[in-house]
């Protein structure tokens, strides 16, 4: 098996196995080949991870922030040195083309480690003058944090959670998605090599039940999960018993609005990036593309021509633009939505079925698909599909499109293409979404906070905002006179 790790879990600085745990396999979605066989964590493994993380956190938090930052910076450098090898592993585990994983996965993880390395050295509180006496605040870690990942950006998600958590002096137990369990183990090895004390970053494997056991563990101080709304709700409910704070990065059905005055070629690029990168398996995708009626025909013509050029193929070939979906189950889910779109009366402009890719008869490939004539109430317009499926809508006025863009339970992201600078800012201010782009789509530099409004989540990852979610403020009142009591 080409990607078999030495053992399933990484605890207290070393690989750890417990064959009592249920066996599961990781498959290469382009071929169906088993690339690794692992065991889910047993209750004993979870206890071991919590104990190791508790010990590790005490040691780690005693270091000055600048020293913690040095470790994270070294880890970023190692990740960059191993980018090719990490990218190949991510391509095997997710099926995403190597052309993407080389630039978007471990690379963004390294950027994130670097960014929070710098912030680690700059964690600070306030001084509050009380006229003689004073108070100050300390920014303190939370303790042992749990990170739970989705399968679309495995090493990026692990890094986006680990970097701010560790920068603040916490320890982390990370549970990757059962579908993509491998790269988080590499991140753990890299962090150890960079000098992280043992126990500070641990990886335990398993499905939702392992995640649920971690969330309810009394030794846990914080949970951050990337996943679906249903999972987010379950995690929040379980965390409520311990009043455990949660960061939830959940799903979306985001609007991308194209006004008639926009640079149409740029808008088409935004729509393509926001629907077909990673075969559409991106939470912030702008899957509801609203195009002002007067340019709708021209926009769709350009779109069809560009989509026809997308090259599906061998994910390991650098010339391939789009690989398979992550699993057969995800492919079936997406194909069911393609059938549903036709049944609901949407017009199929291109795609609409599974794709045949020579040499990959068992691959989970789906054609990039565009529907027009989509009505707001259709299920393909309301539900997250998480595949290469774009819906195009017409609109006539700014007021109308804002109302329709906001008429969703989700609020993860939104985009606006226009050459009118005032309109761009005016519209974005009215969109109920956590992350917005003007004349761009799906760019998520680590400096910019990322997260959702409404049912798309709570809290923010990246940017200085993430520090708020992995630390707590302690207020200290200092009496400079003599303490007095009224009786
Ligand atoms: P899931 O919600 O199915 O799973 C997310 C993670 O939670 C997995 O590791 C899963 O384990 C685990 N899990 C499942 N049930 C529980 C539970 N009760 N308690 C604790 N953990 C649990 O999402 P997917 O992995 O299918 O990912 C796709 C979803 O993720 C989409 O909705 C997408 O929008 C969202 N997403 C959001 C992003 C964001 O930043 N906002 C980014 C990427 C994806 P396992 O899968 O191993 O069973």
UniProtKB/TrEMBL annotation:
Pathways per UniProt: Amine and polyamine biosynthesis; betaine biosynthesis via choline pathway; betaine from betaine aldehyde: step 1/1
InterPro entries the UniProt entry points to: Ald_DH/histidinol_DH (IPR016161), Ald_DH_C (IPR016163), Ald_DH_CS_CYS (IPR016160), Ald_DH_CS_GLU (IPR029510), Ald_DH_N (IPR016162), Aldehyde_DH_dom (IPR015590), BADH (IPR011264)
EC number: 1.2.1.8
Enzyme class: oxidoreductase
Modified residues (Cysteine sulfenic acid (-SOH)): 283
Gene3D superfamilies reported in the protein's UniProt record: Aldehyde Dehydrogenase, Chain A, domain 1, Aldehyde Dehydrogenase, Chain A, domain 2
Sites where the protein binds K(+) 1: 26, 93
PANTHER family: ALDEHYDE DEHYDROGENASE-RELATED
Family according to the record: Belongs to the aldehyde dehydrogenase family.
Complex and partners: Dimer of dimers.
Name the UniProt record assigns to this protein: Betaine aldehyde dehydrogenase
Organism: Aureimonas endophytica
Species classification: Bacteria, Pseudomonadati, Pseudomonadota, Alphaproteobacteria, Hyphomicrobiales
Gene behind the chain: betB
